[in-house]
Amino acid sequence: MREVGADIRSPGLLAPATEVCDEMARRARRNVEELVRRLTAAGYRFHSNDGRRTSMPPHSPPTATAGEHADWLDEQFGGVPLTMKSWVRHVGDVWFVGTHPDWADADASDPLVLEIEGTVQGETDGEAIQGYFEDEHDAWSEWSDEDPDADPFVIPLAPDALHKSNTSGGDPYGIVLPDRGVDGTWSGETLMSFVDYLNDVFAHGGFPGVAADDAIGRRITADLARDLLEL
After folding, report:
1. Measured distance CA(18)–CA(11) in Å, rounded
2. Cα separations in angstroms, 216 against 43, 103, 105, 220
3. CA-CA distance, 58 to 37, in Å (whole number)?
4. Which pLDDT belongs to residue 125?
5. Is the separation of the CB atoms in 108 and 213 below 8 Å?
6. Which segments carry the region annotation Disordered (predicted)?
7. Where are any strands of DSSP class E within the chain?
8. Chain centroid to CA 40: how far?
9. How do residues 49-85 score in pLDDT, each as one tens digit?
10. Number of domains in the chain
11. 214 within a domain of the structure (yes/no)
């Protein structure tokens, strides 16, 4: 499906491709819910990535207007990948930044964050995050008009690994737009497909940046990742 590009939206392909993406998202949601359960049971505290450490909801399911928000994204930015639209409609927003009682480096291990509908921050109607996305795109447009070598627009969906641990870092993570294909390009520590990124996240129990020499983190994330579904 990736190989056909934007033609995936042609009659006869769009409906089955969307169902495949929806199933991907449903499996991802089960993984997210299981990780929240396991982390909570371990005493993990989900909080903001600043000095206040304000409690944050780890998972905010889609609202009643999630489908409308997904369509708005598609129209506003010239197309978003079908996998991204399915995530908005079936998974919601995720915030795994926090503190583990037995693992001091959890917040430095790039915990999963995805804010597409804006509900983690307490938004209920989508207008605030839509305005944020529009402002970011306007700033990129001005830059790209002045610089013919400007990078493509990346819609900001998560702080980078350093910002997650309350350290000055780089550009936010996100998906390269426009993209009318089935799956998008995730721009994070490396470029990869969105689904490949998510599979890497779940293979590491929600913390894909766990260091190779972090014995405690490796043990904890291996237990978190146990029996999670591949997307």
Report:
1. 12
2. 15, 6, 9, 6
3. 10
4. 56
5. no
6. 47-66
7. 45-46, 59-60, 93-95, 98-99, 113-114, 153-158, 173-177, 185-187, 191-193
8. 20
9. 999 999 999 999 999 999 999 999 999 999 999 999 9
10. 1
11. yes
